[in-house]
Automatic annotation (TrEMBL):
The protein's name in its UniProt record: SDR family NAD(P)-dependent oxidoreductase
Coiled-coil boundaries: none
InterPro entries: NAD(P)-bd_dom_sf (IPR036291), Sc_DH/Rdtase_CS (IPR020904), SDR_fam (IPR002347)
Family note: Belongs to the short-chain dehydrogenases/reductases (SDR) family.
Biological source species: Salegentibacter chungangensis
Keywords for this protein: Oxidoreductase
Keyword hit for Cytoplasm: no
Source organism phylogeny: Bacteria, Pseudomonadati, Bacteroidota, Flavobacteriia, Flavobacteriales
Length: 249
C-alpha cells in the first residue's frame, strides 16, 4: 500500500486530499501546525487508513528534517509527497506591503516546500520511485494587482516544479504541479487575517472551486499508470477566466 505525506492537512485542499486518499486506503502522514486538527482528522480516518501525524512549522528547517527523518519504520518509505502547505498573507500594493507578510509567504510557500522536499527526496532516490506534487496556483502563472509577493512565491513554486522534474529525471521520480484558481477554503481568511466577512466576499456571486474538486484531481494524478506524469495542470472554476476575470452576478 502506498504511503503519502501531505503538508497542510489541517484545512482546505490538504485536508480534502487526506480524506480522499484515506478512501483509497493509502497510509497517510498528515502534517500541519494545528495538532488538535490533525488528531481529529486521524480519529475520523483511522478506520480507512493507517495514519501518522506530524506537527511542525515548515519554516523551521531543523524541525522539518528532525520530524520527517524520525518517522517510524512503517511510514518512512514515502511514495507520494503533496507539497501543499501555504497561504497568502495580505493583499496590499507593494509600497504598502507588510514585511512580515512577505517573510511568511517566501518562508512558507517557497522555503518550506524546499525543506520538506529535501527531507523526502533522498529515500525516493534510493528506491528509484516516488511522486511529488507541488501545489502552485494560477498566481504562479500570472500576476494580479496587489498580489505581488504571493504571486512571486507561486511563480517560484512553478520554477521549482520545473527544476525538480529536470533534476530528478532518470531517477524514477514523477514531479508535477497542480495550479488551482479561486478555491473556497480558509485561504482568504488567512489572507485577511481572520476577517471572515471580507474573506466570504471573495467567493460571492459565483461558484468557486471547492477543496474536494482539487483533491479529486490530485487523486486522479497519483493513480495514473507509472509511465504517465501529469507535469503541470491549471484548474479554474467555470466562472473564472484569469486571475482578474471572474463572472460574478
Ligand atoms: P488553507 O488555509 O485552508 O490551508 C492551508 C494549509 O497550510 C493549512 O493546513 C495550514 O496548516 C498549512 N500551513 C500554513 N502555514 C504553515 C506553516 N508555516 N507550517 C506548516 N503548515 C502550514 O488554504 P488552501 O487549502 O486553499 O491552501 C493550500 C495550498 O493551495 C496553498 O499552497 C495555497 O497557496 C494553494 N492555493 C490555494 C488556492 C485558493 O484559492 N484557496 C488557489 C491556488 C492555490 P496549519 O495552519 O495548521 O499549520
Ligand atoms: C490562490 C488563488 O487568485 O487568490 O492562489 O491568488 S488567488
Amino acid at each position: 500500500m502506498k504511503t503519502a505525506l501531505i503538508t497542510g492537512a489541517t484545512s482546505g485542499i490538504g485536508k480534502a486530499t487526506a480524506e480522499i486518499f484515506a478512501r483509497e486506503g493509502f497510509n497517510l502522514i498528515l502534517c500541519g501546525r494545528r495538532k488538535e486538527r490533525l488528531e481529529e482528522l486521524k480519529a475520523k480516518l483511522s478506520d480507512m487508513a493507517k495514519i501518522e501525524i506530524l506537527s511542525f512549522d515548515v519554516r523551521r528547517k531543523e524541525e522539518v528534517f528532525h520530524k520527517i527523518g524520525g518517522l517510524p519504520e512503517e511510514f518512512s518509505n514515502i511514495d507520494i509527497l503533496i507539497n501543499n502547505a501555504g497561504n497568502a498573507h495580505g493583499l496590499d500594493p507593494i509600497q504598502e506591503g507588510n514585511t512580515e507578510d512577505w517573510d511568511a509567504m517566501i518562508d512558507i510557500n517557497v522555503k518550506g516546500l524546499l525543506y520538506v522536499s529535501k527531507a523526502v527526496i533522498p529515500k525516493m532516490i534510493e528506491k528509484k520511485s516516488g511522486h511529488i506534487i507541488n501545489i502552485g496556483s494560477t498566481a504562479g502563472k500570472e500576476v494580479y494587482p496587489n498580489g505581488n509577493v504571493y504571486c512571486a512565491s507561486k511563480h517560484a513554486v512553478d520554477a521549482i516544479n520545473q527544476g525538480m522534474r529536470m533534476d530528478l529525471n532518470g531517477l524514477g521520480i514523477r514531479v508535477g504541479a497542480i495550479n488551482p484558481g479561486l478555491t473556497q477554503t480558509e485561504f482568504s481568511e488567512v489572507r485577511f487575517k481572520g476577517d471572515k466577512e471580507k474573506a466570504g466576499k471573495v467567493y460571492e456571486g459565483f461558484k468557486a472551486l471547492q477543496a474536494e474538486d482539487i483533491a479529486d484531481i490530485i487523486r486522479f494524478v497519483v493513480t495514473r499508470p507509472y509511465h504517465v506524469n501529469i507535469a503541470d495542470l491549471t484548474v479554474m472554476c467555470t466562472a473564472q477566466a484569469s486571475s482578474t476575470i471572474v463572472d460574478k452576478n
